Amino acid sequence: MNMETKMPDIDISKELESIDSREKMIRYFDGYSAERMEELDERKIKRPLVKSYMLEHVGDTDRQKGIAELFSSIGKETQKIDENMYRVLENKESMGFLEVLTPRYFVFYTLHHSEKADRWVRNMVLSSPDLDHVWLSGLTFDVLWRRVAQLSKPHRYVSLMFVHESIYQIDSEIQGNEEDEDKEISLSLEEGDLIEVVERRASKFKLVDKVSIVSDKLSKLQNLYSPLYAISQLRFPSPVGRGGHDFYDNGKVTNRSGNFRDHRSHILYVQRIYDELMKITEERAWYSIYKEKVTIPGQFQKLIGSPVTIKFGEKLGEETFKFWVKSTFGRLNNRFRLWGNPIMLGPTKIQVYGVDKHLWKPIFLELTDEHLIAIVPKGTCGNTIHRLICNIQRYIDPAAKAYIGSEEYQAIVDKSSKGIKYDIEH
Amino acid sequence: MTSNINQLCKDPLFQINLAIWMAQPQSLLHFYIYPIFYESGLRIYSIGPLLALPPDIRLAVAEKINCQEAVRPDLILESQRNRRLCILECKASSFGPESSTASQARSFLLISSKILSEVLGLPTRAESEGMVCYLIGPDNAELMERTLDALEKEIKEKVNCESGNYSCLKIRPFESSIILEYPEKIKKYMNLKKDSPIQIIEIKKDTDPRPLYFIPYDPNIQQRKEEQEYCRRVLFERILSYVLSSIGGSTIPGSITFLTDDLLNAATFGIFDIWEDNEAKKHIKRLVRDFIENIRASINEPLRQCISYESQKGWIIDLKDKGIQDELLKQLQKYKPEELDLSKKIEPTLFENTEI
Question: Alpha-carbon distance B50 to A32, whole Å?
Fold first, then answer.
């Protein structure tokens, strides 16, 4: 049930305007979260929950922009609160606060209604080639879930959402429209009641149970029913009280706990894992010619990089494959946000020397009924890979396995999360 | 789609891309092309390096045998374990000891001896061992081995110099796959983990087995019309993706400038820079200029005016506002290199040497 929709309209912007320091902001959001928790307990939410959106700026330091420049280029005003904290305004309305975690990663905190905040963030990301969501794929969530199981007491409740929709299965070919591009994949952005007759695999359900029970059953259930690999939302139970922090696949995090500082700590924890994952991804996957000077005239060229392989658990039907290719490369706007002229090499094999249209960077792909291979030239953001994996799990095959070079993607996520300190401020 | 896999196996560009793929890190559970080199600890040491014979060797061979003073093999693979190096050269067909290609082979044989470490710029001679491996298509390996035997003998008898190890890797279609075959001496020298032959690509029904190409084009390679058209298409698609990326990611208002060399380096992972054949480079630059002219001509007026060419600067794309950027991106995304005449001969122009 979407309790927020019944709430009275309160001028959130006005309240945010009075906050002029980080300390005040943290205190205000902390108190606000505690109030909402009480309301959640009584099942009478009066005002929207705190929501945070993890965002990624470009990794290339030469292309990195200052906050004011970056946001003014997409029509947003920013007011500096301190070195790393900004208020963000749209047409003089305070939308929330932006914290710069690193020059590459930001988090946007807001108290606006989900519908409004989701749309605002989504449009902001869509209109800038320099901003993207932080993409948490089902494979990443699977590893994060294991961390939740380690961090939480067995009796605590965890919630997981699974979403998979085989939109390219041809049985009930539903012609997409030019607005497809705007439908980003997170379920967090699809709160409405969409009613349609579907005759293709479509799974969307929520699991809430004790950590001990989910630990025991989840992998068994995943083996039985592959859409359960497509984890699209995961709750980190709060260690300082009831409730927790709901992380969505597009980097949105809803605070369903009574503590904002704890909420922020969880975001920092996941962001650090993501940052590490991104570093490893880019270090390994980026293809380039490394020029090594030696004692004789000229240079030696080493080709460095690793291919990204996404192997489907089940072979795609020929019609599904064709529909996927047509829907992706036959339209300027498509869910994968890719452009390319497919070179047809067989009924179920194409190659595309194309572009990731979100970040406007080249990417070379081979798509078959069994796999997707990507060659990522140096400079193409690692985020492209994570978004690709998210999309494949969501729309093509929830049980797909991914590899960067010879190493399984999940093992890399696992490695990325192991060195990260989990510091809860309380 | 290629109709003749036998012919494809003889295409040096297919061969070199296959060799690069065999050295790429891939899971042995879900590989794309069997990574036999990677699995065996071989890594790419260098692509297309220029290797010169040291002065003492040049003096020794001068006017006695016909060899090149400097050669550029397609690839050098290096064993992680024992500093063994494999000089890999892709060839469409075998050749005899009297052919012009034999002079290059003599240099490879000389370089792959104990002087290899010096030639590679390593501190002392005899630090690395080398082997020359010719990667060839079907039905050529025996003649190739005989030629190499004859050349080694000639080097020994006429100049009393050592040759390095040598042999041939062969690729050919077999049933529903392309297999790699090699003699025991290659397996032993390169410490390959599998016995020959090995299946490296599965051939699916009605499907072209070509992998994604790392190196999409090489003007020095003689190709059949079909292979040349495919490679030209890949090159054009890659250039178009680079142009689109640059326009889409640019700051507005602003302008972007491309030299033809920049476009070619972006499309070839920087390999264009190392091609030495100036005539071949001129040819490919002409090809790319013609391609960009074609793109420009496809843009509707007045938008076309925002793309111009200045001989001292290269291609300039003037992006005055977001509307121009969006419309240009829209039109460029609809451009189809496959609709061009991909075997068109490009004639020289009066001003082709003026671009810096």
Answer: 68
Q: How far is CA B14 from CA A364, B79, B92, B215, in A?
A: 17, 23, 10, 9
Q: Is the dihedral of CA A279, A280, A282, A283 positive or negative?
A: positive
Phi, psi of A370 (to 5 degrees): -115, -20
Model pLDDT for residues A25-75, shown as the tens digit of each residue? 999 999 999 999 999 888 888 899 999 999 999 887 777 889 999 999 899
Cβ–Cβ under 8 Å, residues B68 and B113: no
- DSSP codes, B135-169: EE-TT-HHHHHHHHHHHHHHHHHHH-----EEEEE
Q: Which residues contact B39 (CB under 8 A, 6 or more apart)?
A: B28, B193, B194
The residue behind tokens 């003699």 is B183
Tell me the CATH number for domain A305-409: 3.30.310
Average of pLDDT values for A163-191?
54
Task: Enter the DSSP assignment of A301.
Answer: E
Taking the C-alpha atoms of residue B112 and residue A31, their distance in angstroms, rounded to an integer, is: 74
Q: How far is CA A382 from the centre of its chain?
A: 13
Helix intervals (H) in A173-298: 211-224, 260-285
Beta-carbon contacts of A331 under 8 Å, excluding residues fewer than 6 positions away, are: A176, A178, A180
Query: Do A406 and B28 lie within an 8 Å CB cutoff?
Result: yes
Torsions phi, psi of B317, nearest 5?
A: -115, 115
Q: How many CA atoms lie within 13 A of B338 on its CB side?
A: 10
Is residue A328 within 8 angstroms of chain B, CB to CB?
no
Query: Which residues of chain A have a CB within 8 Å of the CB of B269?
Result: 287-289, 303, 377
Is residue B282 within 8 A of residue B276, CB to CB? The reply is no
Cβ-contact A244, A152 below 8 angstroms: no
Inter-residue contact B70 to B53 (CB < 8 Å): yes
Task: Please give the C-alpha separations between residue A219 and each of A96, A148, A289, A352, in angstroms, as whole numbers.
Answer: 39, 15, 41, 35
- Decide if A360 and B251 are in contact by the 8 Å CB cutoff: no
Contact criterion met (CB < 8 Å) for A309 and B27: yes
Q: Are B154 and B132 in contact (CB under 8 A)?
A: no
**Where does chain A hold its CATH 3.30.310 domain(s)?**
305-409
What is the model's pTM? 0.88
Is A62 in CB contact (< 8 Å) with chain B?
Answer: no
A361 CB near a chain B CB, below 8 Å?
yes
Q: Strand, helix or coil at A351? A: strand
For residue A181, the model assigns a pLDDT of 43
